[in-house]
Amino acid sequence: MVAAAKLEGKCTNHLDRRTIITTLRHENVNPLDISHLSGHKNLKSIDSYEEQQKKMSFLISQAQVPEKQ
């Protein structure tokens, strides 16, 4: 499907799932509706996607790029 859509970069089922859930949360879709779509039984699992993304973004923004030698 990735080749047919001519997508570049890493594409996995889990990455797509995480992107969809995060996008739906940003669009203020009801977490209960998202859980029905995604199959999550625990609503906190849905929010953890966004929290993980925030933590990773913070870590990346704090990382120092090594100087070229």
Strand runs, count = 0
How far from one another are the termini?
Answer: 41 Å
Q: Name the average pLDDT.
A: 77
Order of helices and strands: HHH
The portion of residues forming beta strands comes to under 5%
Shape: flat
The structural class is mainly alpha
Helix content: 55-70%
Rounded to an integer in angstroms, the radius of gyration calculated over CA atoms is: 16 Å
Number of helices: 3
Largest sheet: none
Low-pLDDT residue spans = none
Brief write-up:
The protein has about 70 residues and is an all-alpha fold. Helices cover about 60% and strands about 0% of the residues.
Q: What would you note in describing this structure?
A:
- The structure is a single chain.
- This protein has three helices and no strands.
- It has a domain at 13-52.
- The chain is mostly helical and 69 residues long.
- The relative contact order is 0.10.
- The chain has helices at 13-26, 31-38, 43-62.
- The N and C termini lie far apart (41 Å).
- It is flat and about 50 Å long.
What descriptors fit this protein?
3 helices, 69 residues, single chain, mainly alpha
Would you spell out the secondary-structure blueprint of this structure?
Layout: H1 13-26, H2 31-38, H3 43-62
